[in-house]
Amino acid sequence: MIKCSILLAAMVSAVPGTALAQAELCRLPATMPRIEPDLPDAKQPRRVLPIGSYTLALSWSPEQCHGRERDPRERIQCGSGNRFGWVLHGLWPDGRGSEWPQYCRPTRLLTPAELRANLCMTPSPQLLQHEWAKHGTCMTRQPARYFTQARRHYQRLRFPEMAALARGRTTAGALVDAFVRINPGWRADMVRVRTNRQGWLDELWLCMDVRQRPVRCPAHQTGAADQTVLKIRPIN
């Protein structure tokens, strides 16, 4: 196994009670898992549309891994002793309405080197292939450029102390307020909290304009109401 990063919140944070958006512990295998092509189909068709805005989608890894700890396809994120909190789901180009561009051009499989460079940010080889094929191809012809843009946004972010939030009674509005207090330039109306059907915290969606700057989320991009009580799984 190859250690990618060990970034403990108490050591790397410049603001007490916050953490940078990197993994607490990320070890990558010496050999990259096999990935499959990610192609458009009848449910997810090719759609070439002008880009009108962007969404930076972040996943709460403990929720993503719940019940998948022994799934070999999720070994990097959910096994191998790794510890992830907020990970990058993807940088998504949005349209000028409620539809968005996707699968804009055919693409090759990502190389092992391209996967390795991004797995401590998005710890799923197949998800990296999916994000590049579905979203990245609508932004650029170069995977490295797409992932560099996503990483730039991801690494700028700080997050509230999630362990403390998980122990108490936390609402979606309280999580957003805590997030915007430690991330200059972001306001509550620029952030959406997403939960699963059981009310567990799943994702944060950050809305950006066509120049990838924070912007008010459009009305059709909904999230949990501010008063929604969140259930938050702790990092194991």
Radius of gyration: 17 Å
User: What would the average pLDDT be, to the nearest integer?
Assistant: 91
Query: How would you classify the helix and strand content by structural class?
Result: alpha+beta
Order of helices and strands: EHEEEHHEHHHEHEHEEE
Q: Number of DSSP helices?
A: 8
Strand content: 15-25%
Instruction: State the distance separating the first and last CA atoms.
Output: 20 Å
Count of β-strands: 10
Task: Estimate the helix proportion, in percent.
Answer: 25-40%
Describe the structure.
The structure is a single chain. By secondary structure, the chain is of the alpha+beta class. The chain has eight helices and ten strands. It has helices at 9-12, 61-65, 75-78, 112-118, 125-134, 143-156, 162-167, 172-181, and strands at residues 2-5, 18-20, 26-28, 53-60, 86-94, 158-160, 170-171, 191-195, 201-208, 229-230. The strands form four sheets. The protein has a four-stranded antiparallel β-sheet with strand order 5-4-9-8. A hairpin with a 5-residue loop joins β8 (191-195) and β9. The longest helix is centred in the middle third of the chain and has 14 residues, at 143-156. The two termini are 20 Å apart.
Topology of helices and strands:
Blueprint lengths: L1 E4 L3 H4 L5 E3 L5 E3 L24 E8 H5 L9 H4 L7 E9 L17 H7 L6 H10 L8 H14 L1 E3 L1 H6 L2 E2 H10 L9 E5 L5 E8 L20 E2 L6
Antiparallel strand pairs: 1-3, 2-6, 4-5, 4-9, 7-10, 8-9
